[in-house]
Amino acid sequence: MVLFDWLFGTSETSRRTQEAFDHRKIFEELKSGPGVDAASRVAAGWSSTVSALFNDADTSLQQVLNKFDVVMRGAAGEQAKDAVVPLAKATRHSLEVAAQVAKDIAEQAQGSMDFKNGFPPPHEVPPDNIGWADYVNPVSYAAKSGVRAAHEVVHAEVEERARQQYESYARASNERVASI
Q1: Which of 68, 81, 143, 150 is in the most buried spot, having the most CB atoms within 10 Å?
Q2: Within 13 Å, how many C-alpha atoms sit on residue 29's CB side?
């Protein structure tokens, strides 16, 4: 009954299916976890190391293609070029893929950092401490119950905000992984 929610609190759940969501566990893991420094280092290392290797391969293949122009002529030269050109194209494409993977890793690291820094701590609902004397005194009972109900409302709001952030982060992460 909405009329007495301030007194007794609410026990309604949203229409959305309640899946396992442990706000406290996720919060503790975020605060005690290794962070995103490792992912940032991987992105930088991937970008520099892999891109450098593909650049070297591309440069070598271009040198081979240029030598074919000078050394080989006619059908043999064209056949040799035709055999190397797909490899050169694949190497250039691999350069683009390596750059995209490095960008996606960096975006994931940034998204993880934003999620970690923006994830709200769980709101504690204090015990109501209602004793026998409070049942006899309706003013005391109403005051203590009302305070607890107010904390339960704040708790529910924080839980919902945390769930939305978690779902948004999971969706964005899945989209980044799928794009690779």
Answers
A1: 68
A2: 8
Residue bearing the bigger pLDDT, 86 or 134: 86
| 128 contacts 58 by C-beta, under 8 angstroms | no
Give ∠ CA 143-144-147 in degrees, rounded to 5: 85
Does 125 or 1 have the greater pLDDT score?
125
> Per the structure block, which two tokens stand in for 159?
């839980």
Tokens of 18: 């309640």
- Band (pLDDT 50/70/90 cuts) for residue 99 is confident
The CA–CA distances, whole Å, from 91 to 57, 87, 175, 177 equal: 7, 6, 26, 22
> For 33, which DSSP code?
S
DSSP character for 16?
S
